[in-house]
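TODO from last week: model Transcriptional regulator, AbiEi antitoxin, Type IV TA system.
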Amino acid sequence: MNDNTPITPRPLHQLAAAPCQVMTAQELREHGVSAAVAHERCRPGGPWQMPLPGVFLLHSGPPSAAETLHVVLRYTGGRDGEAVVSGLAALCLHGLTGVPPLTALDRVDVLVPRVRRLRSVGRARIVRTHRLPRPVEVAGFPVAPVPRALADAIGRLPDALAVRRLLTEAVRTGFCEPGAVVRELSRGRVLGMPQVAAAIDTLRLESRTLAEAGLLAAVRAGGLPDPCWNVGLWLPDGPFLCDVDAYWPEPAVAAVIDARVPPQRGAGAVPAPAEDDATEADEIRRHQTLSGLGIRVARLTPRALRESPERQAAVLRTALAEAARGPRASYVVVLPR
């Protein structure tokens, strides 16, 4: 059989017993069911229903969560990643607990290319965009990555508490990095919304707390000597150098948590926010200053600390060993932040 071989029509009772009971008008025609027959079966009290134009549900009861998604995606007619579930529906599929179940959502956000001429209807909210994300497959559905889904969902949430809970859960449970969320919020032009702005400081504080806990876990996992935690480094004559997350005076190794968002590459990449640029400049200056004094700097990311504390412990152990074998570093004063 090749791709041009017509589908053999099946009796209506066999269609109703199919594993997926969602079909488009075109698919029904390929099975020998005319538009007139399909619409007749969707009359009040009939065995079928048509939840969206041109999409039929081959039973009369309420759709399941999976059927709702199938209906919405069949309505878009998207092919090859041209329709991506986003917003609260996507967050529910990813497993966030702070969102309602799919069956409780009034609308399902679906991202489509801006050139598509679809209209929102029923439970399908069509969001045309020039930034269609590369979807991830969740339960067989094309779903936006968590940062993009958060940005699309939060823009429609008026409740600051709900926004803060969503952001905190996404970061605390490891679904995404805070920097990636902030970048998506910036690109979605929702950072300035009062309910979003109020949650960003909480998000950054949450990220910092988790990263510092990860650094502590890495030191413990590696059996490393305890450093001076969260300290500022000063020259003996007084000028302040910089803050570091951990410092081993002997043999002069500083650990720094780098929470910046990695730069994007390729087509469609969006420049980093000005805040990221300023942070990067500060990181470069800090590294150059400490290196010039002979202090070895180990830069660790929140994701790496969360996902592989043992590996980060090995990074720190190597830095300590190499510093011990190298030239003696300049003396600095270590004070609490």
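Done. DSSP finds twelve helices and 13 strands in the chain.
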